[in-house]
Amino acid sequence: MDLVELNKRVREAREAAEARGETFYPGPSRIHLAAFPPKERWSDWVELDSKAWPARVEKRFMLVPTTCFNCESACGLLAYVDKDTLQIRKFEGNPEHPGSRGRNCAKGPATLNQITDPDRILYPLKRSGSRGEGKWVRVTWDEALDDIAGRIRGAIRDGRANEIMYHVGRPGEDGFTERVLAAWGVDGHNTHTNVCSSGGRAGYHYWLGLDRPSPDHANADVILLISSHLEAGHYFNPHAQRVIEAKQRGAKLIVIDTRLSNTATHADHWVAPHPGSEAAILLAIANDLIRRGRYDREFVRRWWNWQQYLECEHPGAPPTFDYFEEVLKTLYAGYTFEFAAAESGVDEHVLRTIAEVVASAGTKLSTHTWRSASAGNLGGWQVPRCLFLLNALLGAVATEGGTYPNAWNKFVPRPIYVPPHPPAWNELTWPREYPLAINELSFLLPHFLKDGRGRLEVYFTRVYNPVWTNPDGFSWIEALTDERLVGLHVALTPTWSETAFFADYVLPMGHASERHDLHSYEQYDGQWIAFRQPVLRAARERLGEHIADSRQVNPGEVWEENEFWIELSWRIDPDGSLGIRRFFESQQAPGHKLGIDEYYGFIFDHSVPRLPDRAAAEGLTPLGFMRRYGAFEIQKRIGPIYAAPVPHGELDDVRTDRFGRVYTRAPAPPDPNIVPTGSPEPDVEGRRPVGVRVDGEILRGFPTPSGRMEFYSRTLADWGWPEHALPTYIKSHVHRDRLAPDQMVLISTFRLPVQIHTRSANAKWLDEIAHTNPLWIHPLDARGIAVRTGDLVRVETEIGYFVVKAWVTEGIRPGVVACSHHMGRWKVGDAGQRQMMATVALEREDRSWLMRRTEGVGPYPSADPDTLKIWWTDVGVHQNLTFPVHPDPISGQHCWHQAVRVRKAAAGERYGDIAVDTRRAAAAFREWLALTRGADDHSPDGTRRPYWLMRPLRPSKGAYRLPDRAAPAGVGAG
Ligand code: SF4
Question: Is 109 in the pocket of ligand 1 (CB under 6 A)?
Answer without folding.
Answer: no
